[in-house]
């Protein structure tokens, strides 16, 4: 058998020669002194030769390991040359690749179809919670028990939803690896029962009495704040959409309004919330996003006409005070409510509860046991971009823009209730700010 010393000492000779090790392995030394490890074997009654690598890049010990791997392939009835070629083509053994390497490949593959904010959230969560403990480990060594240990550390800091999202991402990474032919057991499958249950949905403080709502709206309309913020608060109340959608509303999202003629018919005014904004606002993790049409009441159009006088040159309907290139801050409307004494009583997101509760109760009082009550409940959910109970995803796909005449009626009824006795939108723009009390 060869030794490291003998391999190093092998010098140049007039002709190529070989130094035999054992079990078919030998060192081939060319006439120019190039040294390579070769393995001689028989396959299908033929004597064949497999080059394992060059010396000193491949040491004697590593050459013996590669010889033993080749012999294992032979015992499985396969030609080691084909296995070696496969390794060169696909880059090595799937089972030994680290989780982090595969995860980053998977993440890079998704970039074209993900929004940047979501792509950044995904890789940040993996870098923070997964790569440090198990990123360097081969994927084949990560089992359910090990993954659960990682997820429970996340749960223990109170991030229950984050743990669930990371579990989904780990599952997707293993599906990607298996689609590439890895044949790995997916440790993220069937472990939901071992995770902590999701906390109940958060309830936002919301006013549910119309008279109290009118009083609040009057306080906001006359508050000592930017008219842009006050009009944003008015439009939020009138549409009952998510605050983020109102913040990022752009003039190009609005159709059916003749801005040059304030007397023009605006009964068909519509705010089309683009699919990508819906996806971002709802933090959707799949490709299932949809355009959301919001019918605009007469009072909503009046508010938009008023604010256009201030912000019409910005792409955003409600730009921030410092830059027309960015929308108002995430907390602008909430701070306005708090300053006017409504902290803990009503928040921007609360308009959705206000609208749903008041409009459903009104429909029930008016219609009694009428079957139309069921339709109005479904329509109210559609207006809030919810999936109505009992409606499948495929039905929702075809019904998002349906029932528009009734949606307009309900939107106008809601606006008439809220704006009864309210000051004109133009007065918010042109009147001086009220001093703080």
Explain how this protein is built.
This protein is α+β, with helices and mostly antiparallel strands and 437 residues long. Helix content is 49%, strand content 9%. It contains 19 helices and seven strands. It has a four-stranded antiparallel β-sheet. A hairpin with a 4-residue loop joins strand 1 and strand 2. Helix 2 packs across helix 3, helix 4 packs across helix 8 and helix 10 packs antiparallel against helix 13. The longest helix has 20 residues. The protein is elongated. The mean pLDDT is 87.
Number of discrete helical segments: 19
Order of helices and strands: HEEEEHHHHHHHHHHEEHEHHHHHHH
Portion in beta strands: 5-15%
Q: Characterize the largest beta sheet: strand count, sense, and whether it forms a barrel.
A: 4 strands, antiparallel
C-alpha Rg (nearest Å): 34 Å
> Which structural category fits the helices and strands?
alpha+beta
Top keywords for this entry?
single chain, 437 residues, alpha+beta
Secondary-structure map:
Layout: H1 4-9, E1 17-20, E2 25-29, E3 35-43, E4 46-55, H2 60-75, H3 80-90, H4 99-110, H5 116-129, H6 131-134, H7 144-156, H8 160-179, H9 210-221, H10 227-239, H11 243-247, E5 254-255, E6 270-273, H12 275-281, E7 292-295, H13 298-311, H14 332-339, H15 350-367, H16 372-383, H17 393-399, H18 404-418, H19 425-430
Antiparallel strand pairs: 1-2, 2-3, 3-4, 5-6, 6-7
Helix pairs in contact: 2-3, 4-8, 7-8, 10-13, 15-16
Overview in brief:
This protein is α+β, with helices and mostly antiparallel strands and 437 residues long.
């Amino acid at each position: 058998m060869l030794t490291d010393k003998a391999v190093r000492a092998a010098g140049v000779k007039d002709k190529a020669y070989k130094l035999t090790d054992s079990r078919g392995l030998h060192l081939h030394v060319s006439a120019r002194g190039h040294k390579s490890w070769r393995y001689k074997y028989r396959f299908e009654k033929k004597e064949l030769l497999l080059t394992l690598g060059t010396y000193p890049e491949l040491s004697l010990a590593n050459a013996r390991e590669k010889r033993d791997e080749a012999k294992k392939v032979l015992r499985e009835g396969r030609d080691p040359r084909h296995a070696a070629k496969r390794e060169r083509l696909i880059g090595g053994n799937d089972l030994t690749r680290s989780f982090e390497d595969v995860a980053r490949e998977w993440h890079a593959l998704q970039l074209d179809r993900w929004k940047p904010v979501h792509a950044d959230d995904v890789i940040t969560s993996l870098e923070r919670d997964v790569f440090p403990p198990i990123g360097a480990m081969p994927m084949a060594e990560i089992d359910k028990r090990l993954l659960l240990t990682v997820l429970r550390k996340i749960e223990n800091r109170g991030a229950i939803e984050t743990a669930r999202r990371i579990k989904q991402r780990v599952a997707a990474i293993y599906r990607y690896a298996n689609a590439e032919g890895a044949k790995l057991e997916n440790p993220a499958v069937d472990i939901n029962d071992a995770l902590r249950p999701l906390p109940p949905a958060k309830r936002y403080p919301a006013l549910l009495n119309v008279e109290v709502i009118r009083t609040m709206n009057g306080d906001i309309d006359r508050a000592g704040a930017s008219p842009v913020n006050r009009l944003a608060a008015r439009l939020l109340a009138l549409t009952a959409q998510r605050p983020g959608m109102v913040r990022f509303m752009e003039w190009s999202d609005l159709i059916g309004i003749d801005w040059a003629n304030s007397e023009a018919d605006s009964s068909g005014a519509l705010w089309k919330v683009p699919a990508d904004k819906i996806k971002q606002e709802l933090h959707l993790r799949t490709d299932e996003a949809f355009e959301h049409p919001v019918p605009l009441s007469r009072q909503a159009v009046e508010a938009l006409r008023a604010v256009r006088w201030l912000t019409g040159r910005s792409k955003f309907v409600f730009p921030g005070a410092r830059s027309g290139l960015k929308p108002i801050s995430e907390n602008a409307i909430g701070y306005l409510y708090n300053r006017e004494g409504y902290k803990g009583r009503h928040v921007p997101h609360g308009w959705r509860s206000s609208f749903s509760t008041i409009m459903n109760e009104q429909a029930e009082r008016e219609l009694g046991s009428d079957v139309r009550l069921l339709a109005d409940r479904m329509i109210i959910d559609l207006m809030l971009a919810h999936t109505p109970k009992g409606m499948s995803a495929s039905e929702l796909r075809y019904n998002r823009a349906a029932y528009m005449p009734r949606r307009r009626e309900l939107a106008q009824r809601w606006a008439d209730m809220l704006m009864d006795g309210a000051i004109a939108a133009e007065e918010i723009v042109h009147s001086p700010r009220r001093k703080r009390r």
